[in-house]
Amino acid sequence: MAELRMAGKNLPAVLRDVVDYRKSGLSLNHVVGCPLDCGYCVRHLFDNYDMKKPHLIMSDDNAVETLVTHWAFRANTTPLQIFNRATDPFLPGVKDHLFACLEALDAKGLSNPMLVITRWHIGPDDVTRLEGLSNLRVTVLITWSGIDDQRIEPVDSAIAERSLSTLANHKRRTKSVLYWRPLIAGLNDTDRHLRRASELAEMADATAFTGLFYREQIKAHFKAAGVPEMYDTIARRKILPRELELKIIAAFGMRPLFRKTSCAVAFAHGIADYNGHFGIREVCDICPARQLAICARLHVRPNPETVTALAASVGLDTSDIRISERNIEVLGSQEQQRYFMQHALNYQVHDRAQPHHHGRHGRAEVGWE
Description:
Layout: H1 13-16, E1 19-22, E2 25-28, E3 31-32, E4 55-56, H2 60-68, E5 80-82, H3 94-107, E6 113-118, H4 124-131, E7 137-144, H5 157-170, E8 175-180, H6 191-201, E9 206-209, H7 216-224, H8 242-252, E10 257-258, H9 261-269, H10 289-298, H11 304-313, E11 322-323, E12 328-330, H12 335-345, E13 349-351
Parallel strand pairs: 2-5, 5-6, 6-7, 7-8, 8-9, 9-10, 12-13
Antiparallel strand pairs: 1-2, 3-4, 11-12
Helix pairs in contact: 2-3
């Protein structure tokens, strides 16, 4: 196994916490640092963008133990992710730790969904090792944007294309998703980009598309790099204007296309969406009929006692919880509290202070006004 240096004590506190809860599951990130220099990387938000060499925070054994003993972990249920916050899992050196963790979790007999997101090289030997896993339900999401402006994304999109092809040619049990992101209006939505994405989708089990996180730090980075301003405003949620979404959907025709990552993963594995988007029916209006049927069978409005107990277990105020056919609404929550409930119930959980407006699919209001 390639040796990575241990990270120094001056690492931001948010990165020293190796397990955090994200919408697509509990995320394990005990390796930080990445040389790929994608300008829109969330590492800007953690004040860690300049750490180009991957570093270990703790051993793989300790990291796996930290994950499975986390308060929110449920064996065979909680969706998991690995190395999706501060590095790429298939980088040299990092890849050894990826497989060590996947194999350790698999050896425990765990069948949790596991998402591995990469834009880097995947070779036939890597697929063979993924195929050796017998319990974890692994999905490899290949990030592809088609952006050729090196100030924004210096990594050649052809690398992701080759990785997607390698997976298609060698996998059986492992699933793959074309992760089409970030889509930016006027940049990578040309007819050429749409044609190429449609071609690549033929090699994947599903395609998920999403927009751009445009926070102050990312905007400042692009400005310093001389990149023309992409949008007039920053936003807490990803930006994907209505016209761009309609353009993507029209271009894809009948190919399986999903607005949400978990929906694409669910389709690839033939299971119901673990985030319960079925309640937000306008999210699902592009989903294949067979996927809608699967989600419909398992979409059950939870009883108030169960919801109240779950909310209380994560420290939420239970005095004004609202349950509808669409979602559960709580007040004063943090993301990890909502996501834990969401995955336990297969039902959308929103905070009323941050409403999801009808038809906007949980995205920023930019381009939807």
